Automatic annotation (TrEMBL):
Superkingdom of the source species: Bacteria
Organism of derivation: Bradyrhizobium lablabi
One Gene Ontology MF term: alcohol dehydrogenase (NAD+) activity
Protein's name in the database: Maleylacetate reductase
Tagged with keyword Oxidoreductase: yes
Protein's UniProt keywords contain Protease: no
């Protein structure tokens, strides 16, 4: 019998799909009576496509400005700079249009505006730690909308990842009102996303679903939604690799990202794949969208003693019920052509000790279903992925 639990519905109004992003965003700005809409966008979408211009034209007098300088891994110094531009524009609604780094930036920008943070040191003390789940942020008066161009799914939760480049450390910041008011799914925004980023971000979305299904604090809604999300993503990613112009498959991938994120929405604690992935990105400069590909089979193997039944469900969702979940996922990664081990992304055993130490700073290490008590336990997982 499952242990007692609960499901908390997130402070989000809508997920909108089936209409162009420019039209949907204009309608949402009107609904929210936003007069100064500030866009935080992918530089590629802004400079190499006409998608952002369509949105600016649709917003008309409600448009207040654009910032397109967010780097991979969302650094402290850049988000503070972007927030100053939004503040100068008197923004009353932030819209993130792009991948996970852009969405993460928009979330923390809300708090930089609210607390008038003007340099990166102003974020000290607000980060999430194993002892402190939420920082002392006030409810932000300015909220956000997300229009994702990748599949990682970070828009479906209230947390954000921001890198302190001085310490080479990726930190979590969290507040319920950093959750987007609305998420707009438009497959047209995804057709410019490079293949490796598209496929890799899809595996990051699967990470949310797998770790939620394996969590000791899951629930029936989360399990059902996440397993459905894994099926959508498994099938949709293979189809889009075969045919990048398959619009239906792209929509199905977006649905899979949404469903796989139900654990995040319910604040079901993630586990070692998230903890280690954050360190690989912040400390070792591994692209975030490759972290699940190289780590998840080993995490599943480490967690098998505590999550045997859950892993059977995961293997079935990956269309391989006859296999262990770790092998099913590894085979899937091979079909996508993504990196399959740490050496493929430039991480050698000489970094394992530091990764283990930094991973122990994560709240997700403490919530892994198979206990992780010391850095050496993390190193054990890393060796499985070497």
């Amino acid at each position: 019998m499952r242990a007692p639990g609960s499901y908390q519905y997130p402070p989000m109004d809508f997920v909108v799909y089936g209409k162009p992003a420019a039209e949907a965003l204009r309608e949402e700005a009107e609904r929210l009576n936003a007069q100064r809409v500030f866009l935080i966008v992918s530089r590629t979408l802004n400079t190499k496509t006409d998608e952002i211009e369509k949105i600016r034209n649709s917003l008309k007098d409600r448009y207040a400005g654009t910032y397109d300088g967010i780097p991979q891994h969302t650094t402290r110094e850049v988000v503070v700079k972007a927030a100053s531009h939004a503040r100068e524009a008197a923004a009353d609604l932030i819209v993130a249009i792009g991948g996970g780094s852009v969405v993460d930036a928009a979330k923390i920008i809300l708090m930089c505006i609210e607390h008038e943070i003007v340099d990166q040191d102003g974020l000290d003390g607000f980060e999430t730690t194993p002892e402190r789940r939420f920082g002392a942020f006030r409810n932000p008066k300015v909220r956000m909308i997300a229009v994702p161009s990748t599949l990682s799914g970070g828009e479906y939760n209230s947390g954000t990842l921001v890198t302190d480049t001085r310490r080479k450390l990726k930190q979590i910041f969290n507040h319920p009102m950093m959750m987007p008011r609305t998420i707009i799914l438009d497959p047209a925004m995804t057709k410019y996303t490079p293949e490796k980023l598209w496929l890799g971000s899809g595996t990051r979305a699967m990470d949310h679903g797998i770790e939620a299904v394996c969590s000791i604090r899951g629930n029936p809604l989360v399990d059902s939604a996440c397993l459905a999300g894994l099926r959508y993503l498994h099938d949709g990613l293979l189809r889009t690799k075969e045919n990048p112009d398959d619009a239906e498959a792209r929509v199905n991938c977006q649905f899979g990202s949404w469903l796989s994120a139900f654990g995040l929405q319910a604040r079901v604690p993630m586990g070692a794949s998230h903890a280690i992935g954050h360190v690989l990105g912040g400390t070792c400069d591994v692209p975030h969208y490759f972290c699940t590909a190289v780590m998840m089979p080993s995490v599943l193997r480490y967690n098998r003693p505590a999550t045997g039944e859950a892993q059977k469900s995961i293997a079935a969702a990956l269309r391989a019920p006859e296999l262990d979940a770790s092998d099913a996922f590894a085979n899937f990664i091979g079909k996508l052509g993504l990196p399959r081990k740490l050496s493929d992304v430039g991480v050698g055993e000489d970094r394992f000790k530091l990764i283990g130490e930094n991973a122990m700073l994560s709240i997700f290490t403490r919530s892994n279903p198979q206990p992780i008590r010391e850095p050496g336990d993390v190193v054990e997982i890393l060796k499985l992925a070497a």
